[in-house]
């Protein structure tokens, strides 16, 4: 192949521009990305070699070497992994294979801080080299191919790159970074070692650097910063030393791993810049043996809503990397979890299809699901500061709290403060996804229910759990009341809430799109039934006093003839018309029958272009309202009846079937 110049795919060029302009404050991640690629390449070789050991070419010790040359101003990362053919270099280093790239690039705003977060999540991989290099040369040969079938790829990171054939005896890849002037400090052993320690300790293969020695260095002052040597310069010794721990983090005992190392590993696999909210690390023994290291991220990825998105777990078998995004290891609703599962039982040549059927995988999946739920329960239990640790509103410690504060040790207090608010953060990012679990994971439904949080008539933020609600229930209250609506404002101002507000009964306000669907799967919580305030007749049971009940019965009786007339006038619109006690200020509202689909869900289905059954709601009228009182004997009876109905529809965020007719009727009355 003769030398040829090719253009980058448009998205790559755009991405490159951003990489060099946005990731400036996070320069050092380039090394993590390139070492991670080198490690992936070794994993791939090991995997392919399972069926073809010839690929090792008598060089079975997989490793990564990092070298630098101060004079040439280069930093080089070399691996003896799978390597690339010329075509692979063109394909893999000139385009972005990942789906969703266009989407991704279109989401970038030009705001550097926001963009660098997004880029971080996306994982810039190889292109991150251009943060520190103004030119990158890649030399590679694919395992199993001839020496003469090597490839050299060179680019300045602008619009194009060059490729040509080279002879390369060594299998694998060298990435040669021609360092920018302002990145010359990366041509230094201690700097590079420091970064490797930070990000790549867990990489399971050795990362080696050439040992250096002081040339003619005389020990003058052992306590000064360069080890007491004269700055005579370091020289390379020709010996190689392994600079990382070279053991996969999840294979090490928990007690030897610092929180920071757990966090760094998470950042590496997730491309997240932020530390995770929680992790769990366990060796599971028994009929199925595996190790799990699972993380709860603090931030939702941009493709969270794509249910097609594969899971976030990497699968290893006996420490050999098998696949990324192994979706069979966790249910879809936990797709935000990141981490690693290393199985001792699965065959090395396991495929995605096989995974779906394996009994071991089923056991792993159940085990991982339980662990994730425990992690979430733990976060939820520690979300609020213990009363005592929270500073009182006026800043002073009141007499009641002082006693308890004394009981908490400084350590416990710090721990409590560290954990406070984490679940709230988790829930605002992932709560809606968690709800999908109600319809997907029946075995864990009860645990999931305990993890749900909603806004309510006594809290605008989604912070009320069913258990909190139950603890606050009024004496004699027999149900957990809720209402679903498109927005919090619509829910809060809904006429159906009036009597509940008047009586001080809390109602959960559900405004997530999935709520309506998810609640189909929840009939009760801990023995207390859930009751929509917009479904069926209100039955406040013992919460209603005798006088109220009597008044309601009487009203129903005296209103009978009027109701019959209303029913007749609205027979095309309303399933039924009845008197209600649920309204205080509004003249009327709409409800659906107990087993009916809510009008809100029907509306949502219609908006989504799906077939929804025609729901005819029940019109409930407030016998005490002046407008309703005026109805009887009014010459405008028919118009008023329709206005009553259409207004009830408007109040819950709906739209009259014939808006023009509604306007005409109201105007006629106004005039
Ligand atoms: P990612 O690693 O996320 O797929 P990159 O941009 O980092 O994205 O790399 C693109 C592709 O280039 C990789 O998927 C891989 O096929 C190839 N590649 C990168 N580095 C190496 C390497 N050291 N050895 C072999 N192939 C590599």
Short description:
Helix content is 37%, strand content 20%.
Structural notes for this entry:
It is a single chain. This protein has 671 residues and is of the alpha+beta class. It has 3 domains: 4-216 and 229-242, Heat Shock Protein 90, CATH 3.30.565; 249-375, Ribosomal Protein S5, domain 2, CATH 3.30.230; 453-670, 3-Layer(aba) Sandwich (Rossmann fold). 37% of the residues lie in helices and 20% in strands. The strands form 4 sheets. A 9-stranded mixed β-sheet has the order 1-6-5-4-7-3-2-8-9, covered by helices on one side. Helix 1 (10-22) crosses helix 5 (112-122). The longest helix has 23 residues, at 359-381. The chain is elongated and about 110 Å long. The protein binds adenosine-5'-diphosphate (ADP).
In the CATH hierarchy, what is the architecture of the largest domain at level 2? 2-Layer Sandwich
Q: How many structural domains are formed by the residues?
A: 3
Share of helix, binned: 25-40%
Q: Structural class, judged by helices and strands?
A: alpha+beta
Q: Identify the overall geometry.
A: elongated
Strand order of the largest sheet: 1-6-5-4-7-3-2-8-9
Share of β-strand residues: 15-25%
Query: Average pLDDT, to the nearest integer?
Result: 85
Number of DSSP strands? 23
What is the CATH superfamily of the largest domain?
Histidine kinase-like ATPase, C-terminal domain
Major pleated sheet: 9 strands, mixed
**Which cofactor or ligand species appear?**
adenosine-5'-diphosphate
Low-confidence stretches: 392-403
